[in-house]
Design brief:
By secondary structure, the chain is of the alpha/beta class. It contains 16 helices and 13 strands. The relative contact order is 0.11.
Length: 373
């Protein structure tokens, strides 16, 4: 399992995985540096991850933590051998029960280790995990193929379109919240792309200021901000900053008219959502008033043309996409308490006369049934 500390050791990680016939999982921060040209990768685990990485780690006898102390304590198995390599000794064993701790640079440590290892001839475990990963990717694709309806475009489809149309060396910034989930799952690495977010602190409204800094630092590269409507509404004044400094930042607003992550957390906790709905202005008109290109998309068929036009424009642009407020992000491992909490929340909504909202949630997420079964 690779964290950001393994970012400079891509080739060594791939060589190690092929020598051991071992699957490779990674954190969100490490995705752009580890996923590409990696035949044994099985995706992310953690809060934004997918089932395949979680499954591989829980089926393993040995886990190598490379450049990470694994912040998601609920997602790491407690019945296997764990080896951790980190440059900071105080982080070794901080969150996981480590059997062997090595203090050192991941790249240099693996370079010293690889000549001492013999080729593992048994690829059974790897084959099983890659097959499972293949099924997970098929399920993720079904969410893309179901593009949604007018006014309720599925955010998975929007993210997949961004991934397809962005340049190979694009810099992505993601807001904390649901737009972070869609970016984590559907923006793929090329070896040149970068992803920035408030990964340590989880601050809201970070995507646009991150994009400003990234564009000033790398004026020749495409910079795309994946913003939530709750996030961008906190810093609308910085649209003027982008125009003033002539920064060709592309801002994609996942406008689900709600604080989506807060709403989901409340539902999982068994609470009917309260004060999570947003009354939004027309962000595209505000962008135009600031002096940049502005597009509003309400129909799935208009997503790609709007993104293409915005990305081709040589100045700043904002694309306001009306996404489905009821789209759920399923965790890598669905726990009984989460199902119980969601059922309790739906029951309270019905008792409070909000049956129409319950039906909308079910209608928007029928595709997740295959994740539960």
């Amino acid at each position: 399992f690779c964290g950001i500390g393994a970012a400079g050791a891509h080739d060594e990680v791939v060589e190690l995985s092929q020598k051991l016939n071992a699957p490779v999982a990674y954190s969100f921060r490490a995705k752009m540096d580890i996923q590409y040209n990696n035949p044994n990768e099985v995706g992310m685990t953690g809060l934004l991850g997918i089932p395949s990485a979680y499954h591989a780690m829980h089926e393993a006898d040995l886990i190598l933590l490379l450049g990470t102390d694994f912040p998601y304590a609920n997602f790491i198995p407690g019945d296997c051998t764990i080896v951790q390599i980190d440059t900071k000794p105080e982080r070794i064993g901080r969150r996981a029960k480590v059997d062997v701790g090595l203090c050192g640079d991941v790249k240099h440590t693996l370079q010293a280790l690889l000549p001492l290892l013999s080729q593992n001839a048994d690829s059974t475990f790897l084959g099983e995990q890659l097959e499972f990963y293949g099924e997970v990717k098929k399920k993720l694709q079904t969410y893309v193929e179901d593009t949604g309806e007018t006014g309720d475009i599925h955010p998975e489809y929007v993210s997949a379109c961004i991934d397809e149309l962005a340049t190979d060396d694009a810099i992505f910034t993601v807001d904390t919240g649901m737009s972070c989930v869609w970016g984590a799952r559907y923006i793929n690495a090329t070896g040149k792309r970068k992803m920035l977010g408030s990964f340590n602190h989880g601050s809201m409204a970070n995507a646009m200021p991150h994009a400003i800094g990234a564009q000033l630092s790398f004026p020749g590269r495409q910079v795309i901000a994946l913003c939530g409507d709750g996030g961008i509404s906190m810093l609308l004044g910085d649209l003027a900053t982008i125009v003033q400094y002539k920064l060709p930042v592309k801002i994609v607003v996942f406008n689900n008219r709600s604080l989506g992550m807060v709403k989901l957390e409340m539902q999982v906790a068994g609470l009917p959502d309260w004060q999570t709905d947003m009354y939004n202005p027309d962000f595209a008109i505000i962008a135009q008033g600031m002096g940049m290109k502005g597009y509003t998309v309400t129909d799935p068929a208009g997503v790609k043309p709007a993104l293409q036009a915005a990305f081709a424009h040589d100045g700043p642009a904002l694309i306001n996409i009306m996404t489905d407020p009821n789209a759920l992000a399923m965790p890598p491992k669905l726990e009984f308490e989460q199902v119980k909490g969601m059922a309790l929340s739906m029951g309270k909504l019905m008792l409070n006369g909000r049956m129409d909202e319950v039906l909308d949630i079910v209608k928007s997420n029928y595709k997740h049934i295959k994740d539960v079964l």
